[in-house]
Every structure is written in structure tokens, then in C-alpha cells.
């Protein structure tokens, strides 16, 4: 990983001098690559629906035809965008394009209601809910039986991904994962979210959540119980939305209990596959003080890189700054290629050992 080994991160002048400027600039002014997707909707066991977007590259309109052009054992990278995010986001599209260029399959996992994914049950998704991801990973593994499956998540998607890795432990289907801008401790993140300029992000995300909810409000009519539908429908903050809807949907007595249980920092010690965590020290939404440094250091499967600047989903640095892909794209690809190379080398050695054993057996049989 030459980019990490160099140990230098040079933020783009002016834009990178302030964490809020960098965060807002990346969200509003970063160019969005032109990219088409073929959508595949999956019905979950509880009646909910998620959408998988497969990129259609070149002149092929059919994603299945493009998949056939790659080797049958080409690795697969599954993408988990942040809260209310999806395949439409620039940071997702740039990495999809980059990973496709190295000969990997790619697929974006749009959670319930996100990126126009259909909502077919009175239940969205949450920071604590990993069952949809579990079913999606199994589906992708079924679709690509000869390939190793990897995943990359941003922000809330990273939190869900790390929780899943911890829950699966030794039985994890994924061969490796990357976590970016992970809030890790949602109690700490919630505290910081309500301070100063962060209120702008809070209101913006609440607006996105309200928009998704209102499209599917009919599913929640006369639902009863502890739900506070008016509060969710008119939420001014993410916390209000979680109080009115999320924490009730997933069986929590309070929002604070939900945030404490959903925090992925407690999952790090149980991760048994290679995990690369990339954070920015000045991230306004994923606080530096929430990073579980000790747990990551103690787990030999985990690697942590913290850049001095970068904001949230920003990282406006590198050759293509300020309008194109974030600095992290190069680092993520280097890591994934390194891990995949290790797996391939190990497989090659195992084949050689098996071959030698077979040759030894033949020699002994002849001698006898």
C-alpha cells in the first residue's frame, strides 16, 4: 500500500483548511461520473425490499452480459452507502468505476427506501439492523460461487458493515472489508451532532429521512403501539425521527438505548476477517474521540488509518482534487488488491503442497 507507506496526506488548499467547508464542498460540488445501473430488487424474509444496482459499463445495456466478460472467479465488491445514500452518490460512483477498472465485479446495496428503492413493509432500516446485509451477502455469494466477496461501507453503512462482521465472526462469508467515516460510537456522535454547525447536517439528513418516509406514509397508517408517526413525518432532527419511528421499529425502549446498542465500536474485537478502517481526525459527524483505537490495535485483523483532515465523506486531496474522486479511492483499491493477492498466493501454495503430496504418494507406491 504505497500511498499509506508514504505517510503523507496533503489536503487541497483552502477547501481542506476547514472541516465544514470540505464536507459541504464534497457534497455539493464534487462531479458525479456518468454511470448507468441495472436494478435488481430483492424481497427480504420479513417482507421488506432492498435494491441492488449493478453498473452497466461501455455499450452493454445488460449488466449480466458485462459480468460474463470478467473471469468467473473475479472478486466482487459490495457497496454500502451512508444514511439515505445510494448508487446516485458521487463517492459511490467514483469507487465503482475505479474498482471496475481493476477487473472486479461491483454492486451497490441500496437500503430500504434509499435511492428510490421500494418500501414494501412498515419498516425501514437502522444502524443496528444487519439482517438485510446478511441476506444480500448470501445472495451475492450464491450469484458468484467461485469469487471472493468484499464489502466497503461509508458512514452509517460502515457502522452496519462492522456490526455484521462482528456478529458473523469466524463464519463470515466476506473475505475482507473497508470502513470509511464510521461514527463507531453513536452516543458520542449524537452528542456532537447537536453542536454548532453540525445542526446543519442534522437538519439536512432529517429532511432526507422525512422525504423517504412521506413517500411511503400509507404503510404506517393506524400502525398503533409506541410509534409517533406525526413526530417522524415532521422530524426536524435525526434524533426526532429515530424517536418517532426507528427505535420502535427495532424494539428499543429509548433512542439512547438504540444508539448504545447499535454502536459498532463493540464489534471490533469479534472481527475475524481483514478490516481496513479509514477516518478523518476532523470529521464533524464521525468524531475522532469515538474511534476504538485500542480495540483495533489489539485485533490483528484490523488496520486503522486516520488522516489529519478530510471532513465527512470529503478527503479533497490527491491528483484529482478538488472536483473528482476522493483521496481514499486509491488507498481502498491498494488495500483490496493487497488482500486479494494474499488470498491468491495462499491458494497457489496450497495447490503446490497438494501436488507435492500426490507426487510423494506415487513415488512410495512405485517403490513398494
From TrEMBL:
Residue ranges of every copy of the AB hydrolase-1 domain listed in the record: 75-313
Recorded family membership: Belongs to the AB hydrolase superfamily. AB hydrolase 4 family.
Record-level GO BP terms: lipid metabolic process
InterPro entries (alphabetical): AB_hydrolase_1, AB_hydrolase_4_sf, AB_hydrolase_fold, ABHD4
Active site: 155 (charge relay system), 283 (charge relay system), 312 (charge relay system)
GO MF terms, alphabetically ordered: monoacylglycerol lipase activity; short-chain carboxylesterase activity
UniProt-recorded name of the protein: AB hydrolase-1 domain-containing protein
A Pfam family recorded for this sequence: Abhydrolase_1
SUPFAM superfamilies documented for this protein: alpha/beta-Hydrolases (SSF53474)
Amino acid at each position: 500500500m504505497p500511498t499509506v507507506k508514504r505517510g503523507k496526506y496533503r489536503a487541497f488548499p483552502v477547501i481542506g483548511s476547514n472541516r465544514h467547508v470540505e464536507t459541504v464542498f464534497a457534497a455539493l460540488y464534487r462531479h458525479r461520473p456518468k454511470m448507468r445501473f441495472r436494478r435488481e430488487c430483492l424481497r427480504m424474509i420479513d417482507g421488506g425490499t432492498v435494491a441492488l444496482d449493478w453498473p452497466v459499463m461501455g455499450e452493454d445495456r445488460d449488466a449480466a452480459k458485462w459480468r460474463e466478460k470478467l473471469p468467473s472467479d473475479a472478486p466482487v465488491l459490495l457497496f454500502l452507502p451512508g444514511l439515505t445514500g445510494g448508487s446516485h452518490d458521487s463517492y459511490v460512483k467514483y469507487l465503482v468505476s475505479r474498482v471496475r477498472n481493476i477487473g472486479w465485479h461491483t454492486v451497490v446495496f441500496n437500503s430500504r427506501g434509499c435511492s428510490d428503492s421500494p418500501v414494501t413493509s412498515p419498516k425501514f432500516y437502522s444502524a443496528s439492523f444487519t439482517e438485510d446485509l446478511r441476506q444480500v451477502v448470501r445472495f451475492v455469494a450464491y450469484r458468484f460461487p467461485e469469487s471472493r466477496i468484499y464489502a466497503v461501507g461509508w458512514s452509517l453503512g460502515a457502522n452496519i458493515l462492522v456490526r455484521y462482521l462482528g456478529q458473523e465472526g469466524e463464519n463470515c462469508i466476506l473475505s475482507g472489508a473497508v470502513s470509511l467515516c464510521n461514527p463507531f460510537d453513536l452516543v458520542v456522535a449524537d452528542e456532537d451532532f447537536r453542536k454548532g454547525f453540525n445542526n446543519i447536517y442534522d437538519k439536512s439528513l432529517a429532511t432526507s429521512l422525512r422525504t423517504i418516509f412521506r413517500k411511503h406514509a400509507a404503510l404506517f397508517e393506524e400502525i398503533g403501539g409506541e410509534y409517533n408517526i406525526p413526530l417522524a413525518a415532521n422530524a426536524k432532527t435525526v434524533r426526532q425521527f429515530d424517536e418517532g419511528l426507528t427505535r420502535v421499529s427495532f424494539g428499543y425502549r429509548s433512542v439512547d438505548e438504540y444508539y448504545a446498542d447499535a454502536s459498532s465500536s463493540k464489534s471490533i474485537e469479534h472481527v475475524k476477517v481483514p478490516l481496513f478502517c479509514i477516518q478523518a481526525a476532523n470529521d464533524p459527524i464521525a468524531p475522532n474521540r469515538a474511534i476504538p483505537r485500542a480495540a483495533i490495535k489489539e485485533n490483528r485483523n484490523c488496520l486503522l488509518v486516520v488522516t489529519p483532515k478530510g471532513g465527512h465523506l470529503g478527503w479533497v486531496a490527491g491528483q484529482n482534487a478538488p472536483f473528482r474522486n476522493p483521496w481514499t479511492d486509491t488507498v481502498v483499491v491498494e488495500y483490496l488488491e493487497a488482500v486479494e493477492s494474499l488470498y491468491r498466493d495462499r491458494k497457489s501454495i496450497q495447490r503446490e503442497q497438494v501436488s507435492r503430496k500426490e507426487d510423494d504418494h506415487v513415488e512410495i507406491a512405485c517403490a513398494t
